[in-house]
Amino acid sequence: MIVDIPTMRGMKWLKAAAFGALGGLSLEVPGIVAAFRWHGVPPWKVTPAPDRPSIRRPDLRPGELPAPGPLPYTMAVGFSTLLSATLAGVLAASYGPAAVPIASYTVGLAAFGIVRKLADSAPPIVATAVIRSLKAGLATR
Asked: How much is the pTM?
């Protein structure tokens, strides 16, 4: 008799996407806590102080502005959560047994870094493959 152990077979992609979304949402919590701790208001109500930008603004980097309202802030959180869920779901759909909850959560946490690295490395990889295939095609003629 075969025993079906869920962690041995991996998760379904939708469940993995949910864990990935939780990982992505975990990245937003420190920003929300910092806004309440330093400014006493939600992040979308934090306004820059142009005359005194250095006062109580350790959460902003130079040139960075806070979200201008609840709608853009909610949209940014929604898109980052969607990205995290998508990558975790793709992991589960591609490598089912590897998609345990901690892996899906970690992929959700690292979603932006993964996408940046893929975007940076994809053009050189594709260019190299095209050049090699062209050289191989020319060599056979």
From this structure: 0.62
